[in-house]
Amino acid sequence: MKCLFRIGFVPIILAFFLGTALAQEADFVARNGVIWTVDETNPRAEAVAARNGRIIYVGSNEGVSQHVGAATEVVDLGGAFVTPGFYDNHVHFEGTGRLLYGLNLLDVSDEASFVSRIRDVHQRYAPGTWITGGDWSAYETWAEGDVATAGREVNPDDLYGNLFLPNRGMIDSFTADRPVLVRRFDRKVYMANGAALELAGIRKGTPDPEGVAVERDDNGEPTGALFNPVSGAVESTVLVRDNVRTLFGDLIPMPSRDQRIAETKETWGKMASVGVTSYCDITSDPVYVDIYRELRDKGEMTARARYRPPLDRWQSMADLGIKVGFGDDWIRFGATKAWIDGIMGNSSARFYEPYTHNPASRGIWRDIMFPFERSPDNPEDMQSRLERLALEADAAGIQLTVHAIGDEANGYLMDMLERIIAKNGQRDRRFRLVHAQVMTDRDIKRGGEMNIVAEVQPFHTSDDMRWMEERIGRDRSRGAYAFRRLWDSGAVVSFGSDSPGTNASRYYLNPMLGLYAAVTRKTLSGQPEGGWFPQEKLSVEEAIQAYTLNTAYAGYEEDMKGSLSVGKLADLVVLSDNLLTMDPDDIKDVTVKRTVVGGRTVYLAD
User: Fold this and answer.
1) φ and ψ at 502, to 5 degrees?
2) From CA 29, how far away is CA 77, in angstroms rounded?
3) Cβ neighbours of residue 225 closer than 8 Å, sequence gap 6 or more
4) Measured CA angle at 604 (ends 599, 606), to 5 deg
C-alpha cells in the first residue's frame, strides 16, 4: 500500500502555493470531533474547515478558530467520530434506483408481505407505469444471515425447492388499472396480474402462448403464474425468462425520464443517509450521464459519480477524447467495464475444477470472450475478443475494469494483464480486478506484483459464506475474499457494495456492513464464532482506508478525494460511534449522523 502514501505531500505543496489560504474565512467548519483523516501525515484531528467546497484546514479546535467568520456555518460535533466520505467502488446505479424507488421482493415469501410491497410501489408510481421485477423468495431457502448446513441434499433438477407462489388474486383489487409482471428470483416462475394478462391476450379459453405454461384455476381462469412448459429442468430458467420477455417485451414501455430522475434522487438520498459521497456507476445506459449533468447544473447533485460504460464502447470514448482523468469534481470518466464469467449466486462463476455440488459444471464464460480470434502479432496464437478490446482500450489510455468471480476467470485475467503489459508497456494503469472473489495463491501473488486494484465488495463475504463451501468445498473457499493476503501482496484493496445485488442476494449501499464484514468475516447474525477464515480479516483502519482513499486511488482521484487533507474536496461523514474503539461486532449497527459533500450538509439525522 505504500504507493498511496505519497499523496500525503499534496497538502504541504498546496499550502505552500496558497500561502494565505490558511487564514481564509471558511464557509463550513466542524469542530470538537474525533476525526480520522486517512492521511498518514496528519491522521487525527479535532476540526476541519472548508471554503468553496474544498478543505482549507485540518487540525485543532484552537487552530480552526482563525477561519471562523460572520458567515461561517459552524457545526459542533460533540465528540462524534468523523471519517472522509465513503467512496463506493461498484454501484449498478440504474438497478439500485429501480429497487429503492420500485419493487424489492428478495426477502418476501408470504402473501401479506407480497401484497404490502406491491401496494407501496403502486401508490408511489405514476399512473400507467408497469410494476416489474421483484425477485421474490431469494432468501426463502438460504435465510439472510444464516450459515449453510454442510452436507445439505440438493436436487439437481430443482435447486430451490417448492417455494412461495403468488397469484393475481392477491393484488388485482387495487392494481386493476396498472399492469404488474413480477418474477421469482431464479427466473423460473413469473406472475402477472389481470391487467398484464389482458394486454398479453391471456384469458380464459385462450391457448397458452408459445413457450409459456399458464397456470389456471378449476374454472380455467389464469391465476397469473407463468412457468416453463417443461417442468423440472434447471435450464428452464433461460427458456421461461426469454419466452416471457418475448411475450411482454413490446408491451412494457421504457421508464420515463421523470421516473429515472425520481429513482436517481431516491438513490442519492439513500447514499447520503449511509455516508456515501462518491460512487462508481456501472450502469450501461448513458441516459444517466445526461441526468447527472442536468441535476448537477441545477445544484441538486449530492453524490459524485464516476461513470463506466461497457468495454466495447471504448472507441467512442477515445473519439471524444475521454481517457483517465476526464471530468470535473462531480462527474468523471476514463474507465470501461467488462464481464468474463458469471456469479456465485447461480453457480455460473468460472472455475478450474467442477463445482462440488454440481460436478457437471465449471461455470461459464461471458459472451465478450467470444469469438476467439487469431492474434495479429502471432497468427498461430488465438486470443479472446475480450483481450483484443482490452489491448485496444489500454493503448488509448482508458482504464480497464473486468468482473471476475471464479478462480479460472481471475487466473485468465492475470495472464491477460501480463500480455497487455508486454504489448503496451509498463505504466501506471491500475487494472481493476472487479470482485476478485476466488483466487489461487499464485494469482494473489501476481496481483501484487502487477499492482492491480482488487475492486472487492466485502459484504459478499457475509452473504456468500452461507453456501460457499457447499458449492466449491472448503479448500477452494480458502481463496475466497482473501482481503488480508491481497493487501499484503501489494495489491490495492478497494471497497464498495455491488448494490443492488443479484437475483439471489441483496447488497446494501451501507458501508458499515462492508466494514463489519471485512473486520469480522461473519454473517449479519454473527456467525461463525471467530469469523470465516479469520486469517483474512483486515483491521478497522485498513477497512476504512479501503472504503475511502484506496477507492479514490483506484480512480486516479487520490489528489482530490479519499482523505481529509488540505486542498481536497470537503466530503466527510459524522458517525454515531467511534469505529476505532468499539467492538467490531457492533459496526454493522453504526449509523450516520451527518453527511457533508463539498462543505454542504446533504444529510442530517433526526
Assistant:
1) -115, 180
2) 10
3) 165, 166, 167, 189, 190, 191, 214, 215
4) 165
Q: Cell 404490502 appears where? A: 116
The label of the residue with cell 391476450 reads 201
Look at residue 101 and tell me if it is in a domain.
Answer: no
pLDDT in tens, 545-592: 999 999 999 999 999 999 999 999 999 999 999 999 999 999 999 999
- Write the CB contacts of 522 (distance below 8 Å, at least 6 apart in sequence): 462, 516, 528, 531, 532, 585
Q: Who has greater pLDDT, 441 or 155?
A: 441
> What does the radius of gyration of the chain's CA atoms come to, in whole angstroms?
25
Residues 7, 67, single domain; the answer is yes
Q: What is the pLDDT of residues 333-385, one digit of tens each?
A: 999 999 999 998 788 999 999 999 999 999 999 999 999 887 777 777 788 99
Cα 266 from Cα 499, distance rounded (Å):
14
**Is residue 49 scored above 60 in pLDDT?**
yes
Asked whether residue 34 falls in the same domain as residue 134, the answer is no
CB atoms within 10 A of CB 300: 12
| 249, three cell numbers | 417485451
Q: Are 173 and 284 in a shared domain?
A: no
Please give the residue range of the domain that contains residue 495: 259-561
pLDDT single digits (tens) 174-219: 999 999 999 998 888 999 999 999 999 999 999 999 889 999 999 9
pLDDT tens readout for residues 237-279: 556 778 888 899 899 999 999 999 999 999 999 999 999 999 9
For residues 191 and 268, the answer to whether their CB atoms sit within 8 Å is no
Let me know whether 216 and 313 are in one domain.
no
Q: Residue 606 belongs to a domain with what CATH number? A: 2.30.40.10
DSSP state of 397: T
* Residue 144 cell numbers, joined: 439472510
381-439, pLDDT tens digit by residue?
788 999 999 999 999 999 999 999 999 999 999 999 999 999 999 999 999 999 999 99
Q: Whole-angstrom Cα distance, residue 302 to residue 310? A: 25
* Of 220, 165, 156, the residue nearest 189 (C-alpha): 165
What are the phi and psi torsion angles at 117 (to 5°)? -65, -45
As to burial, measured by CB atoms within 10 angstroms (0-12 exposed, 13-18 middle, 19+ buried), residue 583 is exposed
pLDDT at 587: 98
> What distance, in Å, lies between the first and last C-alpha atoms of the chain?
38
The full DSSP string for 166-201 is --GGGTTTT-TTS-EEEEETTSS-EEE-HHHHHHTT
Boundary residue ending a domain (202, 224, 248): 248
Q: Quote the cell numbers at residue 447.
A: 496481483
Is the CB of residue 39 less than 8 Å from the CB of residue 14? Answer: no
CA distance 7 to 331: 22
CATH number at residue 139: 3.10.310
Please tell me whether residues 504 and 458 are part of one structural domain: yes
Same domain, 525 and 376: yes
